[in-house]
Structure formats: C-alpha cells, structure tokens
Amino acid sequence: MGLLDRFRITEVYEPQPFVPDTHNRSILPPARESLIVNESTALSLVPVSRAISVLETAIMQIPVQVHRGSENIPSPAWLETPDIDNNISQAEWIGKTLVHMALTGNAFWKISRGPRGIVNIEVLHPQSVGITQDSLGRITYSISSHFGVSKNYTSKDIVHLKLWSKPGLNELTGEGPIQRHKAVLRSALDLHNYADNWFRTAAVPTGTLSTTEFLSEDIAKSNKKAFIESQQERSVAVLSSGLKYENISLSPEEAQFLENQKYITRQIATMFGVPTLYMGMGIEGQGMTYVNGNEDRNKLYEDGLQQYIVRIQQAITDLLPRGQYAKFNLTEFLRPNQLIRYQSYAIGLTNNFLTVDEIRAAENLPALASESPVDQTQDVTQPIA
Known about the structure:
The protein is an alpha+beta fold. The protein has 14 helices and 13 strands. Among the domains are: 184 residues, no CATH class; 43 residues; 31 residues, no CATH class. A three-stranded antiparallel β-sheet has the order 2-1-13. Strands 4-3-8 form a three-stranded antiparallel β-sheet. The chain has a three-stranded antiparallel β-sheet with strand order 5-6-7, with no helix packed on it.
C-alpha cells in the first residue's frame, strides 16, 4: 500500500435523518361529490323535509269555506271531497297542493265536469304535466299517463297554481324555495356529505409521535410499529429517543360541524317561512313559553302559510259561481291561548260589551240555565207550625 493510500480519506457512512415524504404530508379533507340539487336530493335533508311537513300539517288543519258577501253558505260537494274518484278529502287535497308548490313551485288540478258542473278535481304530479304555448298565446297542458300515453288539455280543464313567478314575462312555470335557493341547498348537501365522510375517507391520523432528534427511517418505523403494538394490547407504551405522543381528535360538535349545520338549518327555515321552533331549534337566550308558542303559530301563518293560502283561495274562488268566494277559516288555527282569551273576556265583561253567554259560546260551551225571577208580590213565607 502506497503512502498516498495510507493518507487517503476513507468515506464513513452516517445514517440520514428520517424525514417523511412531504408530498402528501397535509391532512386531506374527504373528497367532495358532485351534487345535483332537485326535489329528491333536497328532501334527503332533514330541515327541508321537516319544513314541508310542518307547512302541510298546518294547512290541513284549516278548513275552506264558501261565502257570499259576509254570509257563510254551504260548500259545493266537490269542495267537501274534491277528488272523490280517489277518495281524497279536502284536507288531504289541499295538503298535496301545498307540497307540490313547495317542492316544485307548481301545482296542477285536473277538472272533471258533468251536466251540473264540477264533479271531481284531481291533484296532478307536476312531473307528469308538460306546458306549451302557441304563437297566439294559447297554453296547452300535456298530461302523461302511467302507460306513457299523453293527452292534451286546455286551461279550461287544468288549473295551474304558481308559488313564485320566475323573472321574465313569458315564463310558463313557477318556482319555489328549492328552485330559487339552490346555492343554499347545495351547501347543505355538501356539508352533510362532508361531515358524514370525515372519519371514513379523510386522511386524518389518530395521533403523532414527535421528537427533536433526527431519526433514521428504520428507527422511526420501528418506533411506530412498537407503539401501535403496545396500544393494540392495551399495555404501557415505552417511548424512546425523546418521542412524545400527541392525540389528534375532534369533539362530536367539531366532527359533525354542528354550528355550520345550525346556520344552514336557519337558512332553510327562512326559505320556507317556518319558525325555527318548529325545526327543533329554539331562539338562543330565550325560553319557550305557552305565550310565545302561540306567537310562533301566527308567525308560521304570516311567513309561511299565507303565500299558499292566498293562491289556493283565489284558485277555488275562480271555480265558484259569480258572487261567491272561498276563504280559509283561520279562527281555530290562530286562536289565542287560554290565558290571552280569558284576559280579553275579562276586559269585555268589565266594559259591558260582552256577556257571559257570549263568552261561553266563543268557548263552545252551552249557555247557563236561566233562573226564573222570584215574584216579589207573592207571599212566599210559610206559617210556623
């Protein structure tokens, strides 16, 4: 071996510190699915289904009556049981009409007439009705049957109710909350899927083993393996090389993004005009009492039901003889609670513009039995034996 060889610097191997691959080191959220907002996907959201259920149940409690002037007159047979062919009562018929308007913005009634006038009114599913308009402005309704056969009708046989009119002068169909507020519903669907897939598809580790020392790849992996095995056996973990374990976890509220979901629920409630109380959400900082519960029913009518009631009333009125009109009887639905009623009765009695019998009639109670006045001219005293 030469002199130069003796003094040649020999390369010494030193282990390289283990640094995990940085390409995919970040915590990845679950992948988002492509979403289509329509009636079916919207109904998969609990707040949407609940809002429509609240509106449908409420309007089914309100009967429709016929008036001439200020007089309440008997309703025609077709209004008592509108769809007699399918044995559908007035309440169910009105409920179906509201649901179609709330979901699609449109409702359709098919009128069947006999020698004496209307005999049946069927609520058609909006998806089975096609609308066209010719150059003269005449509208034709094409109704497809279960067998795929279509039949055409005119506006004389079909009543078309629109919830909201679309922007533009010649729009043949209406729209409802789902069609007008697709962005809100898309966010709700996205949030629902995101929270549901968080633990199943998100690249979120359960914890981290960290140290300030540099570790070779082999040592790092062996430490990881030893830690996992100790935890599977539910034994004591021994951490070397200055390792420190930190758990990565989310609270149930964070994992399900409850605050975001509450915000979305409030938006959907506003879309349909349903007070948040009916959506299972109280007003923060306020307690629920019998009085403000009654106020919520009034708010449900003003913000949600009224827009449907006005349109249905007008559509029924158009089918009645001239001089008659339809009106929902809201007396019982908007009836104040017992405390408020009794306070107003007390005011009426005190100021002598209500009598006891009038109050009892308002409460559906029989009048008090009148007592015969005593004849003061007759001697009712009896001699003592």
